[in-house]
Amino acid sequence: MDTQDTIIRVNNMKIDITIDEGILTAVRGVSFEIKQGETLGLVGESGCGKSLTCKAILGINEPICSTEGEIFFNANNGGMIDLLKLPPKGNEIRDIRGKQISMIFQEPMVCFSPLYTIGNQINECTRLHITKDKKKSKEITIEMMKKVGIANAERRYDQFPHEFSGGMLQRALIAMALVCRPKLLIADEPTTALDVTIQAQILELIKELQKEFKMSVLFVTHDLGTVARMCDRVAVMYLGKIVESAPVVELYHNPRHPYTKGLIGSVHKIGSRRQERLFSIKGTVPLALNLPPGCSFYERCESRIEGVCNVKDPKLDYIADKHAVSCHAVKSGLREGGERFE
């Protein structure tokens, strides 16, 4: 594989959390890669392990989690570095975190301290990673605040978080994430707390800045409409595993995993009749603790194969060019249909 344009490659990542009942495996063998300028959408319902996956890349899950696997990042020194081998509080990961990899979190209100001005908090990244000069640092911060659409940035620089609206606070958070022009931006449901009109503005802003800075983006969401608008490829997660991965157009037009079909079928479509019922996935997501053998979607799946799906956990394998699925039923159908499958 050509690694020249690969920004990040995650191999078989596993995240365990110790709770009173035992070891909860929140992320179970996740693998993906993102190339330069590409946007990968990470989709799945709440609790499937999306945010833990993102935080593991930044090394901020410790000490509550135990993370195994490989996270190779194409750092500025031109080599692929395994982030999991770096000390979580060492200088190497600190030089990457915030400067080369940045993250936009879900709730902007809890990301800023109420005791310091917005400009002062954005300035922390500028002074840490760009320049120690106070005047120059302030100029860079104000320039970025203007770039993300914060009007009267010079005045807003000295205001506190409670003086910002939700939309403006999210723009300030984007400014903080992008002030160092990172190679990879992780956006963890960045519009969840905003109304629909502001959501559209924020998404458009992220796309514009991605193009300008030539960034790669890992976009985490449960909104399939947002995925269609923002992403080049999609990875669908269920109970800590990626169950399907494909280019966004391919996934929407030809979903193969029963869970993916259920997600897409549960979205209201323009032009559908009022009386038409939305599809719903039966059952509930089990707790990732002492899971029985076989596929974790077995109890909820309408395509399950007795004696197969409840015995062996399916692997994520390619069924077509750039389209991978983790499902025994799909693979069985391909073989029976005479199509080539390896």
Detailed description of the structure:
The longest helix is centred in the middle third of the chain and has 18 residues. Helix 7 runs parallel beside helix 8. The radius of gyration is 21 Å and the shape is globular. The protein is α/β, with parallel strands linked by helices. An 8-stranded mixed β-sheet has the order 6-7-8-3-9-10-12-11, with helices on both faces.
Summarize, please.
The chain has twelve helices and twelve strands. With 342 residues, it is of the alpha/beta class.
Number of helices: 12
Whole-number mean pLDDT: 88
Ends apart, CA distance between termini: 19 Å
Record field, number of beta strands: 12
Helix content: 25-40%
Can you tell me the residue ranges where pLDDT is under 50 for at least 5 consecutive residues? 337-342
Topology as a string of helices (H) and strands (E): EEEHEEHEHHHHHEHEHEEHHEEH
Q: What characteristic shape results from the CA principal axes? A: globular
Q: C-alpha Rg, in Å?
A: 21 Å
